[in-house]
Amino acid sequence: MNDKRIELKYQLDPSLALEVKQWARQHLTADPHCETGDSYDVNTLYLDTPQLDLFHQTGVIGRRKYRVRRYGCEAQLWLESKSKKKNEVQKTRSVGPEQEVLQALIGLDDIPAQKDNDSTSTPWFGDWFCDQATERQLRPTTHVHYRRFARMNTEQGQSMRLTIDSQLHASPATEWEVASEDASSDRSQRVKATPLEILELKFHRIMPHRFKELLREFPIPVTGFSKYRAAIRCWNLDQTISIFDSTNTSPANLRSNQETLTHA
Fold first, then answer.
1. pLDDT tens digits, 114-141
2. Is 67 helix (H, G, I), strand (E, B) or coil?
């Protein structure tokens, strides 16, 4: 499944995020993917090269993200690649049963044997992901965990979606295991990546009138944010990269928190 759309990203303090959520509940409908109410949990395993080319935005991988995602406690996994240029996002996704996906991903650790099998096997829905992961030497790097508030609507035939990600935490990758939110999940290694909440406005072509109203009504600063880079920053893999991607500095009352690791 291929998708291309505009994504605008903003960082909100919790009080402003609460106001935006209240506005969204008045003007948008709940996303049908929500388990209950208008929120759901997301766990994402990010891949990178041994040199952290994605983190540093260098090398072959550059700005294209490769990740394996689970929603809530679902027994299926999404294989995704995502690139962004001038706010336009292009995403490729495939989904399949957890055990089937993990078996293929674990096979990436034995490339010669996998290639021999591929020559005689039938095409698999995740072949594109495995081929690109092999070509770019991508391996599990870190987990990102958060709670997503999601509302949506249509305007003049165009779909629009508003999400706010909160409780953003990071944890080390454990080979190809993808975290879940079931009762038995180990949360002891999760650390808080940011005290802020991440607002995303998603639409095709032209910004919807509703979103223009939102940006006029609330003092929402123009910023950028990378969940992956924030997660890497938590584990001090590179002290020189700030989790705040925009040229704006973080709010004064939050600067003292940037180096604090808070266990969930």
1. 444 555 568 899 999 999 999 999 999 9
2. strand
The rounded distance, in Å, linking the Cα atoms of 193 and 51 is: 22
193 near 166, Cβ under 8 Å?
no
Largest CA distance in the chain: 60
Alpha-carbon gap, residue 114 to 109, rounded angstroms: 9
pTM (2 d.p.): 0.83
- pLDDT tens sequence across 190-239: 999 999 999 999 998 889 999 999 999 999 987 878 999 999 988 765 54
Residue from 158, 172, 178 nearest 72 by CA: 178
Please provide the DSSP assignment of 167-222 as one string. EEEEEE--TT-----STT---TT-EE--SSEEEEEEESSS--HHHHHHHHHS----
Contact 60, 53 (CB under 8 A): yes
Rounded distance between C-alpha atoms, residue 99 and residue 205, angstroms: 38
- Would you call 55 helix, strand, or coil by DSSP? helix
- State the Cα–Cα distance between residues 101 and 180, nearest whole angstrom: 15
